[in-house]
Recover the amino acids of this structure.
């Protein structure tokens, strides 16, 4: 419950805030009851090699990326980059402004029937862009949660969320039980329960 800061001294740590991360509590693709999301921007661009590989699409295929900040009790708790191949949303209407594009992508995702999801959480450090959105210095410890969403047997979205490790406690499901997979082991895709 104490935090040491070089040049400042020892301080009392901020209380941890429980943040639900299952789809039933946070909503799909993330509009929740006790927290909210603020859209930062939305882009549509060719997928670089690593993102294309993670999404299971051809390199250079077009992908929508919605960047958001998750607010809990008015504080920035997480950033998210939600990547959606354009092939997963073939009937996306045209849009005049960037904010319209983000709303359209999120609305279309809400209409998909997700039949499976897989989550992985690992410790990381905040890069400059994420740190600025979280109002923390670069290099701050964070929890990085990668979620893959499947519909009709294919991957339709990949979300990479960066949660503040200093004040955030992630909760999974109603029971709180989490299966831990050793580093290097192949994670299994599990149907959401």
């Amino acid at each position: 419950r104490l935090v040491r800061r070089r040049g400042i001294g020892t301080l009392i740590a901020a209380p941890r805030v429980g943040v639900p991360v299952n789809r039933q509590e946070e909503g799909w693709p993330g509009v929740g009851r006790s927290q909210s999301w603020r859209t930062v921007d939305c882009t549509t661009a060719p997928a670089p090699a690593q993102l294309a590989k993670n999404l299971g699409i051809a390199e250079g295929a077009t992908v929508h990326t919605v960047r958001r900040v998750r607010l809990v009790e008015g504080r920035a708790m997480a950033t998210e980059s939600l990547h959606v191949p354009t092939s997963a949303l073939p009937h996306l209407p045209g849009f005049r402004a960037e904010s319209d594009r983000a709303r359209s992508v999120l609305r279309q995702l809400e209409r998909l029937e997700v039949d499976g999801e897989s989550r992985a959480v690992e410790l990381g450090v905040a890069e400059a862009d994420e740190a600025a959105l979280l109002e923390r210095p670069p290099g701050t410890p964070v929890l990085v949660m990668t979620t893959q969403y499947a519909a009709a047997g294919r991957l339709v979205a990949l979300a990479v969320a960066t949660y503040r490790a200093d004040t955030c406690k992630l909760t999974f499901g109603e029971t709180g039980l989490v299966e831990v997979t050793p580093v290097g082991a192949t994670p299994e895709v599990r149907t959401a329960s």
About this structure: The helical segments are 23-26, 49-55, 98-111, 128-134. The longest strand covers residues 35-46. Residues 146 and 170 are 13 Å apart (CA to CA). The radius of gyration is 17 Å.
